[in-house]
Batch of 4 targets.
Target 1
Amino acid sequence: MKILLAEDDDVFRLLLGTLLFEDGYDVVAAPDGMKAWERLDGEGADLCVFDVDMPGMTGIDLLKRLRNDDRFSGLPVIMLTVKALVEDQLAGYKAGADEYIPKPVDADILLARIEALTRKTGKRKG
Ligand SMILES: [Mg+2]
């Protein structure tokens, strides 16, 4: 099962990518929204984890673009961001997020939420 990770912070992208990989997922990591879109457009994914604040295309813009594409309208998307205000979270859900998780997040909680989302889609690790 492939997770597309979009995160502009190099350290956090590496940490998060390693966490997901060690938990048994295939990980495709992109440093901004446009590169994430190119990867998704080209090879697809089974679940996405997007930061919000990124240079160029933000995580919200990326999410909207994906939701407007029939191929990805039902793809599970988790927003993972320091933008934690109520209006930020509501904007995320309105744009089509399945989960909106403020940073910092406990690693086990993030993995549990990914598992909960993938239970619905029937996708498995590996
Ligand atoms: Mg960021």
Target 2
Amino acid sequence: MELDLKLTGCRALTMDPARPSAHTIGIWQGRFAGLDEQVEGLPATETVDLGGAVVLPGFIDAHTHLAWNGRRGRTIDVTGVTTVAGVLERLANAPGEGWIEASGYDRRIMDRPLTAADLDPVTGDRPFYLADLSGHACVVNSAVLRQLPGITSDGWLTENEQLAARTLRLPYSLDEIVGELRESARQVLAEGVTMCAEAGIGAGLIASSPLEAAAYQRARLPIRVQLMVSAHVLHPVAAEPADGIARAIDLGLHTGFGDDRLSLGALKLWTDGGMIARTAALTEPYAGTDNAGQFADTEELMRAAVVDGHHAGWQLAIHAIGDRAIDFALDAVAEAQRQRPRADARHRIEHCGLVRPDQLGRIAELGVVPVVQPTFLWAYGDDYSEIMGAERAPWMYRGRSFLDHGITVAGSSDRPVADGAPLRAIEFMVRRRSSGGRAVGPDEAITVEEAIRAHTLGSAYACRKEDVLGSITPGKLADLVVLGDDPRTSDAIADVPVLATMVGGNLMPQR
Ligand SMILES: [Zn+2]
């Protein structure tokens, strides 16, 4: 046997308990063929000496938004702008015609909230949409409000009203989406990410087009992608009653369809909003307010989507950030399993942001996978700690408690809501320090190896890909990342350079 590629001089941390480290990695036909003495004696078409560089399995981002991220790069950016005058200045002389799109608005830091009346003199009759960085709100001008006759607003729209405004703008063309995907794939590769789970296509707030999946097929990205499908596209089907499927997507496609490059992942459902917009559903109000957030829809409709999706064979990815939404998600999953038990359904809770101590046991018992975004707390931990108050702040985006309860933790970014770099997230999981230097739930700190595991094997598990991805194990797909330093000994993990990534045996230098 002749290997396609032999990597020597590695300090590989394989994440495979059967063989945790390796110095030589053999690759054949896009897969790991063997390690160390298993491949040392074999000839190879190409041999690359990594000179002692640290090698990890490729990072898997279990919840991200590639199209939205790529689009953000094309819109007018108002990130960090704190005054109405400052925002208007950025918008003056917007190029092109038709819709004007902007992003990066942060209502919390403004001198006063921006309104349609402020915008109209600058934007004129062109419809204008400014996305709040939470993803759960926006500001629009009167040209948009006029098209939403049922909505009374000064321009600030959240949740379902935001969705109504967003829907006016859709769809984007496949060419636009393909361009956005390619730009995002380039970015994530540079950060060591070899697979992304796109968190919701086809409908809803983050949809781009009803043809969205076609864009992923056309784009032929250099990374692996799994598509979560928005539950909004489930529709009644006239299946034989014995199949027990009331609603499905066309052709009965569901989780697992596709191949190792592009596949269907979970069915994405939303049960509440987010912490930045103060719409995450809590059992007790946000500190110092009487607002306890809100559900995304009626409980009846949300429960029906969970049950129908479960019955139709989907893995579910249920967006639930506040503890009240998490209660709802756990109850709905328990109900679906009671009606029709499915072994290893492996339903996920996306974000799983505020988990009360009494909820940990239920998450473990139901086998639900929390898909967390540690970088949220690096970026917004100071604010979140304030709005949760002293008792609840340590319950946010847990790490140690999940692991101690035997729960598999999956790392993700929710890019572009927060910085997407896995090494940034890993550093936060270990140090539990916000960008402002505040300790956020320090008891939830985990080890570097556990944090790497969450972003490799843990996220592979959340995507039902742990049989082929997530560790450097002979037989698995040859995805890895080459680092310039060892995160286990570095005191600035987020700054460790990514030297190269490999997807399916194809080594791609990054710098
Ligand atoms: Zn998301």
Target 3
Amino acid sequence: MRNFEWLEPRTLEEALAALDARSMPLAGGVDLLGELKDHIAAPARVVNLKSLPGLRGVRAERDGLHLGALTSLAELEEHAEIQRHYRALAEAAGSVGTPQIRNQGTLGGNLCQRPRCWYYRSEFHQCLKKGGGICYALAGENKYHAILGGGPAFYAHPSDLAPALIALDARVRIARQEGRRTQYRSLALSEFFRTPAQRLVGGETLLQPHELLVEVMVPPAGESRYLKFRERPSHDWAMAACAAHLRIAGGRVHEARIVLGGVATVPWRSPAAEKAITGLPLEEALSEARLKQAAQAAVEGAQPLRQNWYKITLAQTLVRRAVLAAAGRPIPEV
Ligand SMILES: Cc1cc2nc3c(=O)[nH]c(=O)nc-3n(C[C@H](O)[C@H](O)[C@H](O)COP(=O)(O)OP(=O)(O)OC[C@H]3O[C@@H](n4cnc5c(N)ncnc54)[C@H](O)[C@@H]3O)c2cc1C
Ligand code: SF4
């Protein structure tokens, strides 16, 4: 680990003012400490966010949920309102790592965590993502990599919370300091992430080095579920996952949002899959033919690598099951 300056700001303004291209914010540290120890990240300054006031906790308001960026994953998993009305989010948070990781890891850190590609995590591989000239995964070990949204890099987006929150139509609030004033902007979480073609080196979001994610807002939701398949059931990132969110009224599907995780370089929303079941009477939307159509649409354009063809079938199965589950129908265990 390279030496760095350690900063303990007492206010958001102080934290923002200390951030620049040579600094990094630290929330729970679950991801960042690993990067520092493994020589993947080498900031000159680390800005500890942990004791900032006002960035932690869940507020349930009339316009939906307001989630502070420093809220722990365990709190999201266990919160009664989230379990009752935003089930996909509780399930996604509960599926992350181990209880220790969920106690330590935060919402903001989970959304901004860096890729798990082993070439990226190896200090001995200077791949495209780190400013080098080659993507080692292309001809190398690519079992866990992306089948969608790839090129020139092919890592799979690692966050479980991101697909669930996008399915729930969440927005993010971003802060930056301009002189003495703190400025905020907010945007749909679906627009927050960048594919490697949009941004290769640096983060996987549109955050600038002097900005912080401060809040996630989730509007009142319909019925939602998050299903995830992982290699080690005890704790692992998704090989594939699907978040489905349905608004059902009068026996009809008025709105469907379907987002895949673990199979693309960004959380992968599929408008074509959503269209296949939207506007239909519920029984027709849940028919085998319609679910198959939605599942096929969700992976349209997939370009698997040598070792990850299995993700096509896996993602399709998860789409079918997540939609059934969101509609309250029984599904076989994945
Ligand atoms: C063994 C293991 C298993 C795991 N399994 C899973 C899993 O199954 N699913 C899953 O989704 N994740 C998994 N993770 C990842 C884990 O969930 C994340 O590493 C964790 O959520 C990061 O949160 P943190 O608060 O510790 O972030 P940190 O490590 O503090 O930060 C992570 C990154 O985000 C940046 N950052 C943090 N907060 C902000 C903010 N508010 N604004 C802007 N930038 C910010 C940091 O600079 C850093 O680059 C696993 C991790 C481990 C070690
Ligand atoms: S997939 Fe991305 S992170 Fe992995 S080796 Fe290729 S460029 Fe690097």
Target 4
Amino acid sequence: MNFSHRMDFIAPSATLEVSAKAAELRSQGHDIISLSLGEPDFPVPEHVVNAVVEAAQTGRAPYTPVPGLPAVKDAVTLYFKRVYNVALPRECVIISNGGKQVLFNLLMALLNPGDEVLFPRPYWLSYPDMVHLAGGTPVPVRPETPNSKITVSDLERAYTPKSKILILNSPGNPTGTCYSQEELEILAKWAMERNIFVISDEMYDQLCYLPSGLSSLSRLLPQFSEQLFIVNGLAKSFAMPGWRVGYGIGAPELIAKMSTIQGQSTSNICSLAQAAALAALTGPYDTVEQMRNVYMQRRDLAMNYISLWPNVSCPMPDGAFYIFLNISKLFSEQIPNDIAMCTHLMTKAGVALVPGTPFGDSRCLRLSYSTDEETLNLALEKLSPYLGG
Ligand SMILES: Cc1ncc(COP(=O)(O)O)c(C=O)c1O
């Protein structure tokens, strides 16, 4: 078939491929523990479930405004007031099908062919493909320091007159790297001084374990609304990945353009999902804090094991639920790369991890600790003979 050129640049998600391989092995009778998925293992808070049931029981399902119901947009602004003490008008908000669609709409609205988009490497695997789809050129920036955080001097090296956007992602997928408020602001201000638009992907903002607390560039929004955009959603912080609620906040003029794109593609997100978002964002946030504490304990559990593996290293993950393991010292003739190591671990240890290649680092594997402690312990025990040598 004669496919469009844009198909040359994009690939199916590697995380989904690993889950499919794990499912295939399971169907053949193998016992596979998956540490590959990027989604919370916690239940949706009960009051949120109840709100969806109530909304369904009205028996009405009209279209809503494309960028979301006013009450849901207000609930997003309430979140920023409660968590970051930032007051935002409703016109700054768009509700989309997950953080993914927010990013997609945004890049479609901003990029022209040849525009360069900077982001730290390793990166969330959708950034390069989304940038390509929107006609831009991805420019991954590898940090010079070994702690996986980029600095202004890394950005200086990557900068060209075509640099149009900088994407920051903290806490980060796949490394769990978390930038402090000060570090984020230094990077954002460097970009804005050069007329580079800043996208802050804060999908995991609630899952930050730094003692200094949560960080968010939303704190700069009132001052720099023309040059800054925040992407977030309810997938991670509120354990609702499948209900596809993402939101973006930025300049009303930009929100209107994104809304036009959304209006010609998917229109409003499911109205029941909007009922869920309303209940989650306006209700108590205690489950969010409980989840954060549990994730932190799991991170410590996993890091205790990993510190005993002399040939494996990783930056200290201060957020999200990922650890990005550098396993290159274990490569051999039989296992020459990350993909071979993944297959080896899945078939021999019975544990599924994700190869680092799609995240921009073929020396690594991504481990997700979004699973209960007992399973995590067992998986790490099973991995030890293979990664601990
Ligand atoms: C860094 C990052 N940004 C954005 C997203 C998109 O989230 P959503 O599931 O809301 O589309 C993800 C999802 O895994 C992510 O890891």
